[in-house]
Design a protein that fits this description.
Elements (H helix, E strand, L loop, with lengths): L5 E8 L6 E4 L12 E7 L8 E5 L7 E9 L4 E9 L2 E4 L10 E7 L9 E8 L4 E9 L9 E5 L9 E7 L4 E6 L6 E5 L8 E7 L15 E5 L10 E8 L2 E5 L26 E8 L8 E12 L2 E11 L7 E6 L13 E6 L13 E6 L5 E8 L8 E8 L8 E8 L4 E5 L4 E6 L12 E8 L8 E9 L11 E8 L8 E5 L8 E7 L12 E2 L20 E5 L1
Length: 554
């Protein structure tokens, strides 16, 4: 969902079946931490139960949740539930042998004591479904001091894992916090040359009415204070209750994610409720390629007022990104970002960038000492005859397509849909067809595997991607959310990514590793980065950041 940077608090791995994961000790959480992160790699002991969350051990009917789900039957479903004694974050968890599912959940601004808490999660149950979920807890406005995960029935199977982390504040690039309503809420101040940036936010506008479609209001994003209209620069797949599932393909300079609660009207059914939001800003200071932003957001303020979705945004400029602005929809009519909104933007560790075309990238010799590996991608296909090249993940040199199975939710500017059976397919990458050969549009994505070194389970890859195409005549560019199963229990020792026509100049393929808490006790918990270069990257001078990777080749 997002690639970090994280700091470990604890990892729990079950040695026998158990009814729950309970995180009750927050004494190791740094006082400066603002956002909680949980990563799950779990299996049910029997049946296909739902995975649920409970906060601060509150068992009252104070939870409201919503989900957008792509099923392996090829159907796209969505729902919103109010007044429950739990939040649902993943449905129909598998109990099949070796089949572990899960994903990542974020709780922004968990220490605030004035407003309700909302979560955003990307989950998959390993070839059954891929799912975006959000939950708002309205039991109290107290800071979060306990988090429990449990099932609708039965137990988590032995071997199930839950990782508790926080966003690492030592990597903070910019923070924005509102003590009063204001038209513009923004970020700036990062260095002139950075790799990707990660945003985690907790946001609300003060708009007091609903949209014409019956849904809650939205906000707009702007880069470098650019408020001009640009067609075809955003893509969205989401569920907004009561209006239902829908997409946008040509939104211009504003786009609707996440959607917000109405403001302070007397009839407002969801007071004190803020949306959870996370995003990755790909290559914001590359100086020659368009900046691409991908993210997820949601809240569930009531059974009939909820939003959850994924989106992408392209800024049609090759100028280095120096600032990001949020504005409420209808800002020209006095709508503001609201008091209590809080947003953080983080640096990712410095990477080495490889800027030449190649037929494929392979990372080999991956150590089994870490918890998570993640591919972080900013790519373009080198072919002049394709517009949407297929990018594939290849683990341990296993290119047999039938050993992989994937489910993806997709928006292509015309329709929101679910596709299955795409095997090791992960993303679509912009190529040079339809007049795109001379344009600076790239595609971006993140693909993560939790507990990649365990030899008792099939590997679960989850993530998302988006194409960057700012051309009004082209409307079928993709935004995708993906869950993939590799039917092999071997530890992952190599991870490759391939494109149909090879990688164009400027492509970046980063491999990250997530250290276990014990190893991060004094140095922090973060993804270790590198960009894969051709033909061979020598590691002698690559510093300890690369200690987990013994060889890299293309």
């Amino acid at each position: 969902m997002i690639p970090g940077p994280f700091k470990a608090i604890t990892t729990t791995e079950l040695t026998s079946d158990a009814s729950s994961f309970s995180f009750t000790d927050f004494s190791s959480v740094p006082a400066t931490a603002k956002h909680l992160v949980f990563m799950l790699n779990v299996r049910a002991s029997t049946g296909t139960p739902d995975v649920r969350i409970r906060l601060n051990n509150d068992t009252t009917s104070s939870y409201f949740y919503a989900d957008l789900k792509g099923k392996n039957t090829g159907t796209l479903t969505a729902s919103a539930t109010g007044s429950a004694s739990f939040g649902r974050i993943l449905s129909e968890l598998s109990s099949s042998a070796s089949t572990f599912g899960g994903g990542m959940l974020v709780i922004p601004n968990h220490t605030n004591t004035s407003y309700y808490k909302s979560t955003i999660a990307l989950m998959g149950n390993n070839n059954e479904a891929v799912e975006l979920t959000t939950c708002t807890f309205k039991g109290s406005t107290a800071a979060i001091s306990r988090v429990d995960f449990f099932l609708s029935s039965g137990n988590f199977a032995s071997g199930s894992v839950a990782i508790f982390a926080v966003m690492d504040e030592s990597y903070i690039a910019s923070t924005s916090s509102l003590s009063g309503d204001t038209n513009i809420m923004g970020h700036s101040g990062w260095s002139a040359t950075v790799d990707d940036l990660v945003e985690v936010s907790y946001l609300r506008t003060n708009h007091a009415i609903y949209n014409a479609d019956g849904g809650p209001q939205s906000h707009s994003y702007h880069f470098n204070q650019d408020y001009s209209y640009t067609a075809n620069n955003s893509q969205l797949i989401n569920y907004t209750n009561p209006s239902g599932t829908f997409i946008y393909g040509t939104q211009g300079f504003w786009f609707t994610t996440p959607r917000w609660v109405p403001g302070n009207a007397a009839s407002n059914p969801v007071p004190l409720t803020y949306a959870a939001h996370v995003s990755t800003i790909h290559r914001p200071t590359n100086g020659s390629k368009l900046v691409l932003m991908r993210g997820y957001g949601g809240y569930a303020g009531a059974s009939n007022v909820a939003y959850v979705g994924s989106y992408s945004l392209v800024w049609p400029s090759t100028t280095n990104l120096t600032s990001v602005q949020f504005r409420g929809a209808y800002y020209d009519q006095g709508v503001n970002m609201m008091t209590g909104s809080y947003s953080s933007i983080y640096y990712l560790p410095k990477t080495r960038v490889h800027n030449s075309a190649s037929s494929g990238f392979t990372a080999s010799g991956i150590s089994n000492s870490n918890e998570v590996i993640s591919s972080h991608l900013f790519l373009r296909d080198a072919s002049a005859s394709t517009l949407a090249a297929v990018g594939r993940v290849v683990l341990n040199s296993d290119s047999t397509a039938s050993n992989y199975s994937s489910i993806k939710m997709e928006a292509d500017g015309t329709v929101a849909q679910v596709q299955t059976g795409h095997q090791n397919y992960f993303m679509r990458c912009t190529g040079g067809a339809s007049g795109m050969s001379s344009k600076p549009d790239f595609s971006g994505g993140v693909a993560t595997v939790i507990k990649y070194a365990k030899t008792d389970r099939y590997k679960h890859i989850f993530g998302g991607s988006a194409q960057s195409i700012v051309d009004e005549s082209i409307t079928n560019y993709r935004l995708e959310v993906v869950s993939t199963k590799w039917s092999n229990t071997a530890a992952i020792t190599s991870k490759a990514f391939t494109l149909d026509g090879g990688f164009a100049s400027g492509s970046v393929y980063q491999i990250e590793a997530l250290e276990p808490p014990a190893a991060a006790a004094t140095s922090g918990f973060f993804f270790r980065f590198m960009s894969i270069a051709a033909p061979t990257v020598g590691l002698a001078a690559a510093s300890s950041y690369l200690s987990w990777l013994t060889s890299v080749s293309a």
